[in-house]
TrEMBL record, chains A, B:
The keyword Nuclease does not apply. This is Nicotinate phosphoribosyltransferase. One of its GO terms (biological process) is NAD+ biosynthetic process via the salvage pathway. Transiently phosphorylated on a His residue during the reaction cycle. Phosphorylation strongly increases the affinity for substrates and increases the rate of nicotinate D-ribonucleotide production. Dephosphorylation regenerates the low-affinity form of the enzyme, leading to product release.
Amino acid sequence: MTPPGLPTSPSTASTASTASTALLTDRYELTMIDAALADGTAHRPCVFEVFARRLPAGRRYGVVAGTGRLLEALADFRFGQEEIAYLRGCEIVGERTLEYLADYRFTGSISGYAEGELYFPGSPLLVVEASFVDGVILETLALSILNHDSAIAAAASRMTVAAGTRPCLEMGSRRAHELAAVAAARAAVVAGFSGTSNLAAGRRYELPTIGTAAHAFTLLHDDERSAFLSQVASAGPGTTLLVDTYDVEQGVITAVDAAGTALGAVRLDSGDLPNLAREVRDQLDGLGATGTRIVVSSDLDEYAIAALAVAPVDSYGVGTSVVTGSGAPTCGMVYKLVLREGSDGAMHAVAKASAGGKNSVGGRKVAGRRIENGLATEEVVVLSPDADLPALDQIAEVAELRPLHVALVTDGEIDHAFTGPEGVRRAAERHASSIAELPRAALRLSAGEAALPTEVVTV
Amino acid sequence: MTPPGLPTSPSTASTASTASTALLTDRYELTMIDAALADGTAHRPCVFEVFARRLPAGRRYGVVAGTGRLLEALADFRFGQEEIAYLRGCEIVGERTLEYLADYRFTGSISGYAEGELYFPGSPLLVVEASFVDGVILETLALSILNHDSAIAAAASRMTVAAGTRPCLEMGSRRAHELAAVAAARAAVVAGFSGTSNLAAGRRYELPTIGTAAHAFTLLHDDERSAFLSQVASAGPGTTLLVDTYDVEQGVITAVDAAGTALGAVRLDSGDLPNLAREVRDQLDGLGATGTRIVVSSDLDEYAIAALAVAPVDSYGVGTSVVTGSGAPTCGMVYKLVLREGSDGAMHAVAKASAGGKNSVGGRKVAGRRIENGLATEEVVVLSPDADLPALDQIAEVAELRPLHVALVTDGEIDHAFTGPEGVRRAAERHASSIAELPRAALRLSAGEAALPTEVVTV
C-alpha cells in the first residue's frame, strides 16, 4: 500500500496495449507451418481471401469493420522471447519453426474493402498475397477482428438508419468483454453512432464520450433533490439528469427545479418509453423547459428505435443490443487459400471440394459495385482462375462499377491512413456514403434477402 | 526492417497485458465521483451487489465465470499518467477528482459466489463493500468481465453436459474479438471443456491446446497424400488428419495409408456428421485402424452434440456457438447500490423504486444452497434490510444450506488463490461439483424455468 499523500507509482502502460498479438492464434496455424517448413511448400506464393458465404439470417447487407484494428494488430504481430519460450516449452513446434517465428514480419501485400464499406455474400473482403507460412499465420487474428467488429457495425448501421437524424450513443460496455467493448464502441461509430460511454475507446480513437449519472448516484443521496443539485453544481445545468429512480413525474419537477429551464436533458432508462417520452415532453414544456432534450435508454435495439420515431425523443442510448450484434454476435467470415503455386511452378486456383456446404471459389478476385443513377444495383466480383490479378476493366460496362478494393499493406508496409482515429473517421465517411447509395428497400429492418445480388464474372 | 539473420528486438510485453484497466469504464462512473467528491457523499460507506434479474430465455441455470479475471483486472486498476492526462485533456472531471484517481487503490472488500458456481435469478453474485467512490468506479469493469465470461461458461456447461464423458474442445477464437477469445477459452474450460485452440489462453492459464491442420494445408500441397505424409512426418502418426477437403471416403483411405493404423484421429469438419461418423467408423475399422478416433467439428452447439450422442464420435470441436454464448452472448447481470450510509450516520437499504421493471431489492445479502439427499433444491438468500451483515445461521435449517459466498478481496487484499491457472482449476472443480448436485431435470437442454427457486429470507 502506498501511504496516503505520497505519490504513487502509476502504470505508464496504456490500455491501448502494444503487447504482442502473435499468440492470438489457433495452434493449428503453427503446426501447419511446422510441417510446411519441413516439406518445402512453406514459401509457395499464395493468395488467401476473406469472405462471408452468407449474411446473418434476414439481414440485407453487412458492414466491413475492424480493418484499421487489423492493421494495428498486424504491426504488433511479433513473436518475442516470451512467446517463443512458451511455444518451446509446450513443444508445439520444432526449433526450425521457432527460428522462423522469431524473425516473422509480414512482408506480403493485403488489399480489401475499405473499412465502413457494405458487403454481400461472396464479396472478396480481404485479399492476402504472401507465402503460405507468412499468410496462413494471420488467419485467426484477421478473422477474430473482422468477424467481431463487422458484426457490431452491421447492427449499429441498422440502428443509425432507424434513428435517422437523431444521434445514437453507445453505452454497452458492461455487456461485452472489457476489451471487446472498446472495439465495439469504435465499430458503432464507424456505422454512424455519435459517441460512446467507453473512456478507453474515447482515448484510443478520439471518439466523443458521453455519460452523466446512474441510479446509484441518486440512491447515494438522502433524496433525489440533493442528488440533482449536486450534479448540477458539478456539471452545470446543461447536464442530463436521470429522472426515473423514484417517480418520473416528480423527478422531472425536481430536475427542472434543480437546474432551471436551461436543463440540458433528462434521461429515461425504464418503462414504456414511447408514452413516457410524450408525457415528459408535455411536462417539460409546461414547466418552460422547452429546450430540455429527452434521452432514452433501456434495452433499445433497431426495432425499438424505429418504434420511437414518432415519440418526442432527442437521442438514443444503446447498450446490450449493439455490443452483441443485435442477434448476430459474429459474422461467418472465413479465410481461405484460393490460389497457390504448385510443384510445376505455376499458380493454381484451389478450393475445398467435398460435399458438405463449405465450398468456396478458388482464384484471385477483385470487386466493384455497379451504380446506376446513383443507386447500387449489383456486386460484381471479377475472378481470374489462374495466376493473373484480374482488373475491373477486364469486363464490359466498367464505367458503372465503383472499385471496392483499396491497398492496405504493400510489401509489408502498412498504410496508416486506415489506422487510429483517422481510420475511424474515414471509415465512418465510407459507411455513410455507401449507405446513401443503397436503394431504400435495402434499409428496411424486416427480414429479407441480401439487398444486392453478387455476380461472379470469370475473365 | 531488421536485416535478415540479425536478432530482432522482440516485444517483451505479453498478450497477457498488464496495462492499466482503469479506463475500461463508462464515463458516468467518473462524473458521479466528481459530483460526490464535491458534495461530501463520496466516502459514505456503501454496499454494491451484482445479480441477474433473470436467466436468458429458456435457460435452467447460469454459471458464474470471470471472477478470477476480475481480480486480475482489479490489481491493474490504476490511473497512471497517461490516463490522468487523457481525463484532464477532455475535461471529464476536475482536478480534485484527478487527484483522487491518481491515488486510487481499491481498499474495500469483495465477497461472492466462487467462480464456476451455478446461479439463479436474484442470486447475490458479488458483494462489494467500499465507500461510494471506491465501489462505484468498478461497476463497468466488473460487469464487462462477469457478463461476458458467465455467458460463455453457461453455454459451455450445456455442451459438456450434453457431451457426457466425451471431451469438448474450444475452437472458436476466429468468431470472437481477439482478446474476448482468450477469455472465452478460459470460461469454456471452467465449464468443463478439455482444451482450446487458442495459444494465448493456453499460455496465460496453462490450458491444454489442440489443433493440427486446416483445409488450407491440404490445398497447399499438390495432392492430399502429400499433405498427409508431410503432417505425419512432422507430427507423428498420432496426429489428427482432416479428411474432408476433397472426398471423405478417399480421404480416410489416404489417411490410413499415410499414417498407418496407428493414426491418432481423423477430423470431419463438414457434412451430415451423424451419418458420416458412422460411415467413417466402419471404414476405419475395416482398414484395421480400430484405435483411430473421430473428431467432429462444424457449427456444433449443445443440440448438435446431443444429437451425436449415439454416433461413434470421440470428441467435439466447438467454435462459434460456445464463444457467442449459444444464443445468449451476454448475461443481464447488474451492479446495484443496495445499502449506504445516510446523513444521519445510519446505514439504509436503497433500491430503484419507479415503475418500469428494473427494480431491485435493497439491503445486504448472503446466500446458501439448500441440499437435500445430495441434491440441490433451493437457492436461499438471506437479507438484512439494515446495516448488519446477515449470516446463514440466522435462519432455521441452516445445516442443510451450503454457503455460497467466499471472500475474494479483504480490505484491498486480493486472494490470489482465485486468479491465474490455479483459479481456473479451482473453478472447473467447483463447476463440476455444483453440476453434480443438480437434479437431472435441471440438465435438460430444452427450454425451461430456472431449475431452483430463489427464496429470500429477511432476518
